[in-house]
Please model this.
Amino acid sequence: MPKSSYADITMSWSILTKSLEEDVLDPGVDACRRELEAALAEVLDRQRQQDFLRGQMAANHTHLQETIERGKEAEERLRAFLKGTYGGKSNQLIRFGLRPRRGRRRTAGENGAEQEETPEAPAGAPAAEAPSPATAPAAGRRRRAGKKKLPG
Model:
């Protein structure tokens, strides 16, 4: 049997039951017609119920999104309050699932100590060129997770 839409099926059943109402046929046909009418009434009722529930689901989705947004705002305020209460660097923030802010890591040249000189290349070996600052990777720098570096 080819696939049909609910509208096609209910239309077909409706036409069939209406056309048999006026004809007086065998009692067996009348019982089958009444059974088809009952099925048609139940299908139409369930379609109305499904449409109603679909509308409720859409409204519920809207309310759910609004509630989630309110919750996110409350979470943000609470996190800010906890950081203000304990301080942004406090290890007590870990209890609440927050990461304390860590100090900046310093590279060897930033703390005032002299950097060690690199040993010279053996005689006869080609001298290695120092990479230019534009092409060299930034020493000691780490990108934050989730942040994308914009070109330019």
The mean pLDDT is 80. Residues 6-96 form one domain.
